[in-house]
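Quick one, T. Sequence first:
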Amino acid sequence: MTRARVLMVQGASSHSGKTLLVAALCKIFFDAGYRVAPFKAQNMSLNSYITKEGLEIARAQALQAFAAGIAPEARMNPILLKPKGNFISQIMLLGKPYKDVDSRCYYSDFALKEGWKAVKRALSSLLADYEVVFIEGAGSPAEVNLYDVEIANMRVAEYAKSPVVIVGDIDRGGVFASLYGTVKLLKPRHRKLVKGFIINKFRGDLEVLKPGIEVLEKLTGIPTLGVIPYLEDLHLPDEDSVSLEAFTCKEASKDLVVAVIRLPRISNFTDFTPLRYEPDATLVYVKSSEELRDLEPSLVILPGTKNTAEDLAWLKYKGFPEVLARLRKRGVPVIGICGGFQMLGVKLRDPHGIEGGQPRAYRGLGLLEVETTFPAYRKKTSLVEFTVSCDCDLLKDAEGAVFKGYEIHMGVTRLSPGVKPAFKVIKDNDIAVERVEGAVSDDGLVLGTYIHGLFDNSLLRRAVLNFARRNLGLPPLAERSRDSWEEWLKSLDKLAEVVSSHVDLDSLCKLAGLPPV
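Structure tokens:
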């Protein structure tokens, strides 16, 4: 059996650009005719995606699979950690809920035991099925406090017999110290695996940078294989909440202001990335009810959360219920997705303490006549196709079309008699079904749903924004931008072109034992 060629991309820090570099390499080698797959042993992220088998992985690996021209699979990300707060994370093991653990127990009881077994099985399977596998590390490989117990960096490189390239983020400053320090903190046998550096997010004059590159190579003996410029206007999903800092500005330069309440435990905020594509909408994340009030939004979104009970308490403490009620009276639509949907209801019951840690019931925001119960440690994960089922102005322009999305949630929500469902699901994990989903208030201004990816569908996105335009006395826009996957492909083409132009691909091919692309 032929074993795949491998190359591992690690980072001198989190948010250094590992994910997008791996996506670019997947796209470049897929375009060159190779059967390519991405792999990340362990990802900590609240932005996830559902595979066609109904399994949950990090959205970053789904994007990389898309770049490689293949369907996302659970083995591409065997361990997904979803932080719930208070040092507790939910472990998704090969796409399924495993258990909630604190950070100490994760390393002492899971990582080197069941976790490492799953990583080896998943990686071995990919290596047997593909020609090239690009492996992404997690965080930094030189976290000395975790060096001997973490299972996402050098342990994986050793197991895969993979050369390693380390990426540094120059935009943060201190890139040479960061790269040098990373290598020097590695154990000697791991240091030998590092074959190159790549400097990412560069904005300056390359001639000014060259002396530093020469000193770094002299000190480490490791060449710098590329300097990638800072890229803007890439319409790709963000991996972590660092990227949200760019969207906290109160200045609205467009017709519409879409305000997303930035919950402390916000999850799947990639749901709202497509709103950036629209020419008439400014996307803003707000952290206080005063911000929301002063912003005078055209649309308010209550996002998903990894801990509904605690974020509901935070909303109340911060005074959001009163501001939301006033906005609704002024005709401003409010949309709740997943945990946001649950919080919009009148009551949440948690008889087993799954969300709040102890059995109890919670009073919701009362904007929708629905009640949610968390009956067991069980999660609904599925890809869905759906249509608009309600007769309401908010979704009127989207009636008759079929859309795609996915569900990831714990809890079951029941509608009170007479409450209208928002959507009708017609396909669930490729199985034809017919079930109602979500809810809409009597006045048509409040909508709740469990479906993620609503705004990935450009027609539905435009329908909601045109409703907001009509509310403000503005004419609707006839044109709409692309669906998200069309935007991703366009951006991946741009990303791949830039990486090809600024990285020594011949050297990378040589490291992986491949002919030049």
